[in-house]
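Purpose: get a first structural picture of the assembly so the mutagenesis plan has something to point at.
Setup: two entries, given in the order below. No constraints added.
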Amino acid sequence: MSDQELEAALLERARGGDAEAFNGLVWRYQRLLLSVALGLLEDQGRAEDAVQEAFLSAWTALPRYRGEASFRTWLCRILVNKALSARRWGRLRRWLSLDHPAADALKETLEDREPGADPEAARLQEERSAAVRAALASLPAQQRAAVLLRSSGLSVVEVAEAMSVAEGTIKAHLHAARARLSAALGDA
Amino acid sequence: MSQEEDDGFWAKVGEAQAPRLPESYWKRLYSRIIAPRAAERRGPSPLVWTALSALATVAIVVVVAQFRRPAAPPVSEHDVWDARVTVAEGEVMVFGKGQAAGLLASAGMPLEDGDRVVTGSDGRAELALSPESLIELGPSAAMTLADLAEKNTVLELDLGALVAKLRWVKKLGRQLQVKTPTAVAAVRGTEFGLSVAESGETSVGVFDEGRVEVRATDDLMVKETMLEARQEVRIPPGTGVDTVTREDGKYLRVGELERLKPYHERVERIRGRQEELGASWTGLSERDRLRVRRDFEERHEKKLEAMPEGDRQALRQRLQRPERGQPRPGAVGEVQGHRGHGAGAV
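Result (structure tokens, whole complex):
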């Protein structure tokens, strides 16, 4: 059974209410969703909350999923809505001084250290990651969401579907972000 | 720019910004995500839910009336033990997976998949998988926590003795195996011990309760043998293992608990510790566990820096993970010529 067939089978069973099958889908997509949520929210705890809420909403809404977009795209749409909503709510809370700003939250992200990795290569990789994250953090929210989804493997069309905007808008977002990200990657 | 180049650029961005987190993090996140749904299943209709609620209420009343504990949810394949060091006496070192230098362990230090715990000749370590499942490592021991998944926990004891008491609920689907250079012990519960000599010879025993199934890895003609309470087997390296022949094949010769009898008092001590730990235990999320582990690593470095130069150098040398077959100066647990495991040996 191919990967796509397996996903289709899991989805079919999950739509029928099979929680175990849905758990299989959670395992497949939690990394993608956390990566996007972390990029949008810059805080591991809030990103985890957003991912959990997105999966819960997807489980509840699954009977209404018609398969017009791929499951991955549909899931990303739910996640982006949750994360952008959490961002807005977070800004309001900070404005009301209920929360402290999470400026350095990403620095505390609990990254795995490659066992036996070359320390110099690891340092360079870390620097590059930090530069890319800083460049991402400087982008407006919609642009950032587009970049995060595109860099997670979605096509321009899928990103447009996930964000419910026109394909041309996504192309414009990606074009605008590209120069900053090229510099961060050392490609410029 | 071609489509291929465009895809390549965004893949590079994705690779740079994606979080690199250990496998255990994803397992815990998964458990956290799926947990709320266990209580929030979709149902066919409100009427059915009402009927089910009424049935559930009756069931709860019956259960409470009989003073029975409600069943715990089954263990998922992604559940991982919230394991940690709970006691470290004398010299106890922990080598993280793939890490060249070890840490001096102390109580509260979280343990991860692949950690190797080594005790000195004066050392003793109590490790908890949970407050109810404790493992004590004696002096001059070396053990790797090869897999901390609750569903299939694997420990690799290369040298020394361990004594354990687990709260083992078979219905939950948990399994634990202890591998030694000459044997594999599949633990059915609950109080057991193993000791491994430098030659690799292994003794496996069950104390007052539980069952352990033992297999000799050097002699595949010998069938898996079940040990009951107060029984023991001895498995030397090679094919010279003592066996008995039954109708359906050869089995390990099972004797009364003897070699491991001196460890019996340790089990009694562990029984008391289960209660103590149960009262003080605070579960840690994956994030907290990793943070606490980092704190331990930082404190360890600071402690080293505060030492006089000579002492620091000597300790750093002892904390180097030795090459396979090379003894560590002044430390035990890695013995020249000792038979080790592929995955667990250093």
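The helical segments of chain B are 3-17, 23-38, 46-65, 264-280, 286-305, 309-318.
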